[in-house]
């Protein structure tokens, strides 16, 4: 009885936590002009809630549920818990290492902030568009589960490439390189670690979540909505980068 009460409550908490990012991102898009005109040097298109929604879609739990449930189909609860914890730690370590090394490399090459912003906009636009298309395509991947399953699955295929996606790492590096304040970088890293915690919780309850068709459909719909918003946001980032480069654009 406790599990039956706890699980719906956990779903509601996660669902409610996703509403502010979606609202915040639309607010960020609508405030594009004011950000671009108020401060050409330090204005950010994305606030922390917007970054959360990006990471949730690119590095978050939506795409981990089905693979984890399939891989651990014939395993016990103890093994699933160890596998989920190991995959979360490996993914978090890889993302933190990429964030620090990537943003240092970009700054050592003296890449200008408008160029970083333009690269982020292009990647965000292409990836969000690809994700929307993939949500409506039928993919039948016949992945074979190793017998017996081992903790090596935490590295591949769970951490790489399921959780730590190349485009997610690219956006993380660009956001870190574009951040001009230490508090901004700490906020980005805090959100990243929060997403990894959500991934861990999603893997813990993956077998229960996939049994509820309504929950899976809700997450897919939410991913579609965020994907559409991120396509628009990618275009806005490209426009702002061009404006900062001196390209005359009017709208």
SSE blueprint:
Blueprint: H1 2-30, H2 32-38, H3 48-58, H4 65-71, H5 77-108, H6 113-135, H7 155-163, H8 166-178, H9 182-204, H10 206-209, H11 213-244
Helix pairs in contact: 1-3, 1-11, 3-9, 5-7, 5-8, 5-9, 6-8, 6-11
What does this structure look like?
With 251 residues, the chain is an all-alpha fold. Helix content is 76%, strand content 0%. The chain is built from 11 helices and no strands. The longest helix is centred in the middle third of the chain and has 32 residues. The protein is globular, with a radius of gyration of 19 Å. The protein starts with a helix and ends in a 7-residue tail after the last helix.
Structural class estimated from helices and strands: mainly alpha
Mean of residue pLDDT values: 79
Q: Give the N-terminus to C-terminus distance in angstroms.
A: 57 Å
The value of Rg in angstroms is 19 Å
